[in-house]
Amino acid sequence: MRVITDARDQMIRSAATLIRERGVEGTSFSDVLAHSGAPRGSIYHHFPRGKAQLVEEATRYAGEVVAKGLARALDGDDPGAALRAFIATWEAVLRGSDFEAGCSVVAATLEGDRSPAAREQAAAAFARWEELYAGALQRRGVVTDRARSLATLAVAAIEGAVVLARAQRSAEPLRRVARELEELTLTAVTPTTPPSGGP
Amino acid sequence: MRVITDARDQMIRSAATLIRERGVEGTSFSDVLAHSGAPRGSIYHHFPRGKAQLVEEATRYAGEVVAKGLARALDGDDPGAALRAFIATWEAVLRGSDFEAGCSVVAATLEGDRSPAAREQAAAAFARWEELYAGALQRRGVVTDRARSLATLAVAAIEGAVVLARAQRSAEPLRRVARELEELTLTAVTPTTPPSGGP
DNA sequence: GTCTATACGAAGATAGAC
DNA sequence: GTCTATCTTCGTATAGAC
Fold first, then answer.
1. Is nucleic acid strand D under 7 Å from A117's C-beta?
2. CB contact under 8 A, B164 and A126
3. Which of B40, B44, B149, B173 could form a disulfide with B164 if both were Cys (CB 3.0 to 4.6 A apart)?
4. pLDDT, tens digit (0-9, with 9 covering 90-100), for B131-149
């Protein structure tokens, strides 16, 4: 059994954190070492393929963390609550960093032209998030195609809102997107029954 | 009167194009010179503050190009049509680059922690796009607050969809987001009148 | 496994000739 | 204005000692 807080995992976590703030190109090995406290000589021992490998694993890790949070929030089978929890997480990230940090998976996508493997990890992460949310909508009676569209909209809009929030240094974009997505979800899972004639 | 295709403007355009593909950190002066054909000795003549200044102007330029396209599409006062035109533009960018290019303004936001001025340009661009779209919705009878929320959702979702599309190398995210946004817009501008009793 | 030292290249920025 | 040459810094990656 392996302890999950060994040096290697700590480096991956540090890399994910720094990539979130500075991007892939803006994060050097020295930065990761300083942040993680890992010894310099152990980089190529743990990551033989160098930075490309570290970025890949950091992207995969970041994707999994979000997926786990999303899955937990979806336990209650209430898509609206999951949406709120998901958005609240991002708002915490933004506020906790004074709007300096965003999503590592987005960063890996944008700067992943030099390492296709990192971009593939990013693609897998987005697909997983969409799948989780679409599944919850389907369990609440939304048909497959619509559930997929809504899930893609939710993931895209939230990730986009995080970008807008960073640029404008305000949580307002995230709140507006949250409001619209919640109402849309509510409408989708609630069959449009004409108002009955009262009691 | 100044010709708009002089060396300086060409460098700005090249920078915007390259940033869209490789990000800010991934775009060097040498890249911009090779792409624009500008002479090496003229960099610090045209941009005394160096790369930071070039990135700022490229971000501003990219924001204006999109804003102009959006304003043109909104001429007809049909928000749905504008939405389609806006999305079609991004789909063309993605397909034309084999999903290697995205939005320079997003790139400037993510890597703009080293140059606050570039991020401010990005924030201004996003705000302008939102404002344009919200204005069109208001002219179609949507109340201010709702128009703002819908506009933020649209900008965030489309920018997010461009990121997803790059990662997954597919235009599908953009198409799904387009479908949902169009329906949402249609619902918002069409007052929910209960069906009248016939002709 | 981890260390120090270093190779090697590329980046941004500057200086001085033309 | 534009050129070439160069300075300085910093990045990844490697080599060899412990």
1. no
2. yes
3. B173
4. 999 999 999 999 999 999 9
